[in-house]
Amino acid sequence: MNLPFMKKALHAALERLDEDDQRDFKKCLVDCYPQIFESSLLEHEILGLVDKIIDMCDLEGSLKITVLILQRMKLNGTAHFLQRMCKRNEMQYELKASMKKKYTYTSEGLAKQGSPTLFNKIYTEMVITEGGNGSINTEHEIRHIGKMVETRSKEQGVIKSRDIFTPSGGFMDHHRFLLMRGMAGTGKSACVQRFILDWAEGEGHQDMYFVFPIPFHELNSLKSVKYSLIQLIHHFFPEMKELDTISCLDDDKVLFIFDGLDECELPLAFFQNEMWCNVKTPTSMDMLMTNLFKGNLTASAYIWVISRPKASRRISCSCVHLVTEVRGFNDAQKEEYFRKTISDQTLANQISTHLQSVRSLDIMCHLPMFCWTASHVFQRAFLTSNGEVPKTLTQTFTRFLLIQLNTKKQKYHRKESGENKEFLMKVGETGISNAGTGQAHFK
């Protein structure tokens, strides 16, 4: 608890009292603690009274004394209200501390023991648009995908990650379900990490009292278990262990973040599952999720689901109030990323210039994940004794593919199997076969 919060809590509690109770409260303070409070206290208004109590009793003492006086006056409802406010604040503090510990660092790409990177140091803003396409270049020299419709992005505007849940970002109070889409590697999870860290550090989104990030791939291990919503929160967030005795899900602004819908193994049977409204009674995980998304479990909770485009169709249209799309980096953001992640600015400029000279690589670098790969590959190449860089696209894309496979293995804690080797052999055989026939691309 800090000073601003304690002032707010005491003021809110005492404001609930009528004039007679306020007068009796001040009189009880003077009568019960004459060594602390003088009779002049009777003349203080609520704000002055709160300041005096805190000045004389410190934060913890002021809470204890206020609760004791309220209970002595048989105002147990107001005493409980004050205790509940403080307990909620304590849980929020512990939850934020846990989030800061978890999200302050990023291993970006392949995790290495002992070499985490400060997320704030390398994070680069991405292009996020409301419901449509940004102006990222998707024209490719090998396979023409088509240019993005710039007029649409201009009409809708570009949203900064910090503004996703603010009115200026398009997410008004009557919208409770945000669906964020984006291709693999466009930076969706980084956007989520930015949001969570800003909340935990008090830099933004403070209107959200609790934020609960739950990756879909972690829900998969619970798909055959019956949980209540309260039990689910306890499972992922031990800091919230007293949530069952504190009704905050309906009273406070709460946000659930579910990242990686494409990895979800739940059926999400929106139309088959029956209505479920009890947050304390266990049910199947699929029943729990569909009713949470529909707003049946807690109508005041905000839901943020992050998904690749194809998988996003699994969410019932009736649930979704706003769709945003993460489009990756524009040209300026690519350069900013390299400047942030490569300490040697001369080397950063060399790599950036080289990538711009190869059209396919320049286009692929609108994907933050590919930017990391390119940075990793070309830093090593430029810093070797001969300074040679990969001379073919095959070398670069092969490295990118290997990193993706290793990232998948680390993320899901899977042992090496023959599947990856078989897959790579088939891709290689198909590439050689098509190269012989003059085909530039294949499905």
UniProtKB/TrEMBL annotation:
Highest taxon of source: Eukaryota
Start and end residues of each NACHT domain: 176-311
Entry-linked InterPro entries: DEATH-like_dom_sf, NACHT-assoc, NACHT_NTPase, NLR, P-loop_NTPase
Keyword Heme assigned: no
A Pfam family the protein falls into: FISNA
The entry's keywords: Leucine-rich repeat, Repeat
PROSITE patterns, alphabetized: NACHT (PS50837)
Name listed for the protein in its UniProt record: NACHT domain-containing protein
Protein species of origin: Synaphobranchus kaupii (Kaup's arrowtooth eel)
